[in-house]
Design a protein that fits this description.
alpha/beta; Oxidized Rhodanese, domain 1; 5 helices; 6 strands; globular; Rhodanese-like domain-containing protein; Rhodanese-like_dom_sf
């Protein structure tokens, strides 16, 4: 069982808890393409942070919830903070890809 932690205007969840629901969520990896290609959590879609923050309405639907992941959780927390103030439902994945225990996809 896992739980969400409220962080300001958005929630957070541990990378270890995401593993149980990874096929049921919209997971967005905001790292740069070269980082993503080096290895990412299965089912994660790559939209770099600068891209998603510049034009979120192009990539996100305000009616859906998105889990945001980066390497360690810092960039994703910043992105979640900015996106949540714009009305998007986002969850920061703490620990990030660097703490994922299963094999990464390439």
């Amino acid at each position: 069982m896992f739980s969400f932690i409220k962080r300001g205007n958005f929630k957070a969840i541990s990378i270890h808890d995401v593993d149980d629901i990874v096929t049921k969520i919209d997971l967005i990896d905001i790292r740069e393409p070269y980082e993503y290609e080096d290895g990412h959590v299965p089912n994660a879609k790559n939209i770099p942070m600068a891209t998603i923050l510049k034009d979120p309405e192009k990539y996100l639907d305000k009616e859906k919830e998105y889990h945001i992941i980066c390497q360690s959780g810092g960039r994703s927390a910043k992105a979640c903070s900015e996106l949540s103030t714009k009305g998007y439902k986002v969850v920061n994945v703490t620990g990030g890809t660097g703490s994922y225990l299963r094999p990464l996809e390439r």
